[in-house]
Structures are given as structure tokens and as C-alpha cells.
Amino acid sequence: MENRNENIIFHNTVKVNGFLWFWGLKEDALFKVKWGELYTDIVNLRCYQKKNSTAPLYGKIGKYESKIIGVPLSADEILIFDCCSGMDKYIPLPKHIFREEFVERGKFWDIIVDEEYAYLIGYWSNKILK
């Protein structure tokens, strides 16, 4: 692992089923690491949207039960990855909530998950998506 990912792991990690999961910003990919081991595996996601930006598609990840939620940085969709089944799905973001200048800089920077909802916190705006 590169030093950059060592920092990301401890800043942007969720633990599910004995694995640590993180989104590698440089690689723009979801990784999983078996607790106590030093090597990582890249999780193969279905073909998702083409990048129109040099920014990573997702910035952070959150967790709800055995699902990982990808917080869109430049992506137009929220990533939902089921760690048990290995299936991923994508939920489109409403287009009307972003002005063009926010889209170029980043959409969301963090997530809070409770029993009922996931709240995505806007990166360059005062938006919270519930």
C-alpha cells in the first residue's frame, strides 16, 4: 500500500464482516482489507458512470448494517454496495439540487447514518440530502 492509502484507511474506513473497507481517492476504487493482514483487494464494481471530472467519483464511505454507502464527490449517483452479496447499485442524485459551480468543486463531503436515514452533507453548499 502507498502512504497515501495508509492515511485514507484510518480517516475513511468502515468495518463490516471482519474486513476494513475504504475508498481510495487516488485509485478511485473501493478496497477491502482483512483485519490484521497487510494486503488489499480492489472490489470489482459494475461499470458505473464515466468520469467527467478529474476528482474522484466518491470521497467518503458510510455504513448501514452490511451495506456501504459511497458519498458522491463528482459522481452523479450514490453507491450502495452490499458486502454480503457483493452486489452494487446506484441511486441517481436529483439534478436540481446543485448549481453548476458546486458540481465542479464537489458535491458531498460526509455522511451521517441513523436507523432510518442517511444524511449526505454538501461540500460547497449548505445542502443536506436526506
Silhouette: globular
State the major sheet.
Answer: 4 strands, antiparallel
Kindly report the CATH topology. Answer: Thrombin, subunit H
State the helical fraction.
10-25%
Beta-strand share of residues: 35-45%
In the CATH hierarchy, the architecture is Beta Barrel
Order of SSEs: HEEEEEEEEHEEE
What is the terminal separation in angstroms? 35 Å
Low-confidence stretches: 1-5
- Average of the residue pLDDT scores: 76
Structural class: mainly beta
The order of strands across the largest sheet is 1-2-3-4
What would your notes on this structure say?
The chain has helices at about 5-10, 100-105, and strands spanning about 15, 20-25, 30-35, 40, 60-65, 65-70, 75-80, 90, 110-115, 120, 130. It is mainly beta. It has a single domain (about 5-95), classed as Thrombin, subunit H. The strands form three sheets. A four-stranded antiparallel β-sheet has the order 1-2-3-4. The relative contact order is 0.15.
List the helices and strands and how they pair.
Blueprint: H1 3-11, E1 13-16, E2 19-24, E3 29-34, E4 41-42, E5 58-64, E6 67-72, E7 77-82, E8 88-92, H2 100-105, E9 108-113, E10 118-122, E11 128-129
Features:
mainly beta; Thrombin, subunit H; four-stranded antiparallel beta sheet; 11 strands; 42% strand; disordered N terminus
Short description:
With about 130 residues, the protein is mainly beta. The chain has helices at about 5-10, 100-105; strands spanning about 15, 20-25, 30-35, 40, 60-65, 65-70, 75-80, 90, 110-115, 120, 130. The chain has a single domain (about 5-95), classed as Beta Barrel (Thrombin, subunit H).
